[in-house]
Design goal:
Strand content of chain B: 15-25%
Structural class of chain A: mainly alpha
Largest sheet of chain B: 8 strands, mixed
Distance between the termini of chain B: 37 Å
Structural class of chain B: alpha/beta
Oligomer: heterodimer
Number of helices of chain B: 14
Number of helices of chain A: 7
Order of helices and strands of chain A: HHHHHHH
Helix content of chain A: 40-55%
Shape of chain B: globular
Chain lengths: 233, 589
């Protein structure tokens, strides 16, 4: 194949690569983490949740992705902030969905989302109903239970043993899905603080350039993640 | 009273792959053309630029490049006895939106159908007799042959910029390609993409079993490339953000990388975005269309756009909806079998196996939408339908699309879905697994169809389209056959564990999980007006100046991803309009 006009010679390419490598090295070491640490979760002022709901979300996400053991938990990743911001935004109000009636909330689940409620409303009503159930079963609302009781209650919720109205039957699935989203999404959405989940599993985030890696088989990738806003970890 | 725009020679509805192709081809004839696009304008820069596009939540999970149900959706039921309910939130399939259409967010898996797939009814009856065709299957021949379409498949591949390895050059088998493919008049425009570790392992295991693996044909540039319109592509960097995303690299075949910038320079072509076509307006005699009425989002009013030729080039679902709303073709009635519009909706029958290797590194974030190795040893033309008890086939492929952790977190069976066990599992298994998939055909059936819903309306007050669809035994049996064949291959690779996912007998259609955006049929091609909506040139039988493109033309779905056939048919239609219709507008059949 003929080289097209303006194609750099091998020599200039090598020079450019050396310079580029040096620059990359400097950039990597000079890059600082986000300067201003965000407020602790206890001091965060929710955009959507009430104080009681916030206590529930803190407690529930802490059991869904616990802090103990290897790797960050939902709280270290600030997953509650992610969920709050999602519900305060267009996702919470189902702006993109077709929400016109008539609604058949008890339809076969395989026909998908059929409740008249949007995700934010499902959370509000779901938390209320689940807390009432926790009071009846365990004598206290969810946030006040021991971790073991909380896990048992979440299992009951997941298994459909908590009698919920069909309008909020998807509450657990929504909570779990949004918790994982907040754990793994880019930090611009308020969760995955410091890209900790990406570091933990080995996902390089927004690097999005791996041409030479297609043929490097069965070899661990060495670089840590970058985020959309330019953080490195 | 709708505002009326100045008359055009051609109005094109939708500016995706087929709208861009028809626009470009007809602009070269000197025709005055306007394309109406429901969604926003979008281009590589600024809309797909790095790093903003590298956002799994926004585009992968919240599907912000897609048609949103609040704007347009349909209702779905599985049987005639069920009440159809709205597809309120995207799941099973993801129709595109905006300039570029589904060509913006697809994976780039570009295939040609097999010769036998285009003449499937004849192939089946000649080899096994009519008796093997299930009573409710609407098995048909396409009114066009592979040989007739070959130059147009070739043209589309060279415009779109497809990377691959020919296996059949003019009837001669070429080592390293797919020996079972239809003949090619020349090799692919670009050499195949390099396969990542998972695809390579799969290829080696398949070859050891006597199969014939080859690099999957990819609408992904393996080299720098310039097509006939002067459009340039750059080589893919395996960024791992293909499906559901716009390509920031000018590497994925799309209307943006292959056609649009050249098309926009044609002085006789223009396009209007945020212009949702509501219906085709028919002339008094009912034999021709006068133009289309659309909703101008900016002006918040209906506009009539007169034109001599109307081309419905939007997505299959929307084209079918417009035909039903405009009264083009008799609506199909499943009870009597009469009528044509809405008939023969089909989908895709897929399954797969996950394999876990705790000591191997797959780097799943290194990939692209058409990555890996494929095989066609269980394709349509390799199966004895009489012996196996089904009509169908599938290709298999292994190669990571992406390693985006929200949606691509494969975990071995028995791993908890949350809690300490889940958290330990994601560390242990992320990057230490691979998968192989079977991508199979789907036949058309008497009770899988679309019509207008009696209850639900869209924001313009039009009835939503209603989809009646369920899985059928024939295709589920095909899927189970693939499972039985694939399990030994997977086992031969000695994984630590495997997860097998193939729908089987009794499976009901579930709209929630993503399956595939390969919705086909509804306005099929046919030899005569009693059997389909359009003739062999994709011209409607009802109105000779209305042409309809896209996978809705498929008589039944093939075992492959639809884009290669959609693109080939678009060039075939363009040629018919250029060489036969313009000089003498009339029914071409």
């Amino acid at each position: 194949m003929n080289e097209p006009p303006g194609y750099p010679s091998r020599r200039s390419f090598l020079k450019a690569t050396a310079a580029g490598f040096a620059l990359t090295g400097i950039a990597a070491s000079a890059q600082a983490q986000t300067a201003e640490p965000p407020p602790p979760l206890e001091e965060y002022e929710p955009e959507y949740f009430t104080a009681e709901e916030w206590a529930f979300i803190m407690a529930a996400t802490a059991r869904l992705i616990p802090s103990e053991g290897d790797g960050p938990g939902a709280l270290e990743c600030r997953v509650p902030v992610f969920i709050d911001r999602q519900l305060a935004g267009d996702y919470g109000s189902a702006d993109d969905w077709y929400m016109v009636g008539p609604h058949v909330p008890d339809a076969d689940p395989q026909l998908g989302w059929q409740t008249p409620l949007d995700p934010a409303q499902v959370y509000r009503e779901g938390i209320m109903a689940f807390d009432i159930w926790c009071e009846q079963q365990h004598g206290a609302n969810f946030a006040a239970l021991t971790p073991e009781q909380q896990d048992a209650a979440l299992v009951s919720l997941q298994e459909g043993e908590v009698a919920l109205q069909p309008e909020i039957r998807d509450f657990f699935n929504l909570l779990l899905a949004n918790t994982k989203e907040g754990y793994f999404a880019d930090p611009i959405y308020g969760g995955n603080y410091g890209m900790q989940s990406w570091v933990y599993i080995g996902f390089p985030g927004a690097r999005a350039a791996f041409r030479e890696w297609a043929g490097r088989h069965n070899e661990p990738y060495p670089l840590g993640p970058v985020s959309i806003s330019g953080e490195r970890a | 009273m709708a505002r009326e725009e100045q008359k055009k020679d051609v109005v094109i509805v939708g500016l995706g792959w087929t709208g861009s192709i028809l626009g470009m081809e007809l602009a070269q004839e000197g025709l005055d053309i306007v394309a109406l696009e429901r969604g926003p304008d979008q281009d590589t820069v600024p809309d797909f630029k790095y790093p903003n596009m590298i956002d799994e939540l926004r585009y992968g999970v919240r599907t912000k490049l897609m048609q949103q149900p609040s704007q347009q959706t349909l209702t779905i039921r599985r049987t005639l006895d069920e009440t159809a309910l709205p597809y309120r939130k995207l799941g099973s399939f993801l129709p595109g939106n905006g300039v570029g259409g589904a060509g913006t967010h697809w994976n780039g898996l570009n295939w040609r159908p097999q010769e036998v797939e285009l003449k499937l009814r004849s192939y089946v009856t000649e080899n096994w007799g009519e008796d093997i065709i299930p009573e409710d299957m609407l098995l048909g021949d396409y009114p066009v042959t592979y040989d007739e379409l070959e130059p147009h498949f070739d043209r589309f591949e060279y415009v779109a910029g497809i990377s691959g390895q020919a296996g059949n050059l003019n009837g001669r088998t070429v080592a390293g390609g797919n020996p079972f493919e239809g003949w090619r008049s020349r090799d692919f425009p670009m050499p195949p993409m390099q396969a990542t570790w998972d695809g390579t392992k799969f290829g080696e295991a398949a070859a050891a079993m006597g199969y014939h693996p080859f690099p999957a044909p990819a609408g992904i540039a393996s080299t720098a490339y310039v097509n006939e319109y002067g459009m340039q592509m750059g080589p893919c960097n395996f960024c791992g953000f293909c499906e559901r995303f716009g390509c920031y690299q000018y590497s994925k075949s799309s209307p943006q990388t292959a056609i649009l910038d050249a098309l926009k320079r044609q002085p006789n072509f223009s396009y209007r975005t945020h212009s949702e076509v509501l219906r085709v307006e028919m002339a008094e005699d009912g034999k021709t269309a006068r133009g289309v009425t659309y909703f101008d989002e900016e002006a918040q009013e209906e506009v009539f756009q007169p034109a001599d030729i109307v081309i419905l080039a939007s997505y299959q679902l929307n084209n079918a909806h417009l035909l039903l709303l405009s009264g083009i073709g008799e609506p199909y009635n499943p009870s009597t079998g009469e009528g044509v519009t809405g008939k023969s909706y089909a989908y895709q029958m897929n399954g797969g196996i996950s394999l876990f290797f705790k000591d191997e590194h797959f780097n799943p974030f290194v990939g692209h939408g058409a990555n890996g190795m494929a095989l066609d040893d269980f394709g349509m033309n390799n199966i004895d339908f009489g012996t196996e008890g089904f009509i169908g086939g599938a290709y298999w492929r292994a190669g990571t699309f992406n390693g985006q952790p929200i949606r691509s977190m494969r975990l071995p069976g028995g791993t908890p879905g949350w809690g300490a066990g889940w958290k330990a599992g994601i560390k242990e298994w992320y990057g230490h697994s691979m998968s192989m998939g079977s991508h199979g055909s789907h036949m058309a059936y008497r009770h899988n169809y679309v019509d207008l819903d009696p209850t639900y309306k869209d924001r313009h007050g039009r009835p939503l389209m209603r989809l009646t669809f369920n899985w059928h035994d024939n295709d589920l049996r095909m899927n189970q056959f693939m499972k039985e064949k694939m399990e030994p291959l997977a086992a031969s690779m000695n994984p630590d564990s495997m997860g097998v996912g193939f729908k089987g007998p009794g499976a009901q259609y579930d709209v929630r999980p993503y399956q595939t955006t390969h919705n086909t049929g509804g306005y099929i091609m046919s030899e005569n007006p009693q059997e389909g909506v359009v003739n062999r040139y994709c011209q409607t039988w009802d109105a000779h100046n209305v042409f309809v493109t896209g996978a809705g033309n498929f008589v039944q779905n093939t075992q492959y991803n639809p884009t290669g056939l959609v693109g080939g048919l678009a060039y075939w239609t363009a040629e018919a309009i250029r060489t036969q219709y313009l000089s003498n507008p009339r029914p071409l059949v």
